[in-house]
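User: For my dataset I need records formatted as: sequence, then structure tokens, nothing else. Please produce one.
Assistant:
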Amino acid sequence: MDKNISKKYAKEVKQISNMGYSNISLKEIEPNLNTDFHTHDFDAYACVVKGKFILHDNNKEHILNPGDFLAVNANQLHSEKTSSLGATILLGKRYKN
């Protein structure tokens, strides 16, 4: 992980790490993103640091603003959206063996 990320977002990185996630990265997400429903092969734990990130799963909408965290399990069907401002998230991944 980039030293600047761990310095600038020390509290958030610590929380993600404490939840058992590694491979923490800062991800810039484009404005007006609207993905189809999909899955990932890893558990994800995200913290929004800028903008608004919207995740749909199991017929529920999660609206995340700066400081909000959300976990998504591997193989969990979901879609992702952003507003016209896009979003920046810290993303931790956990792979199952």
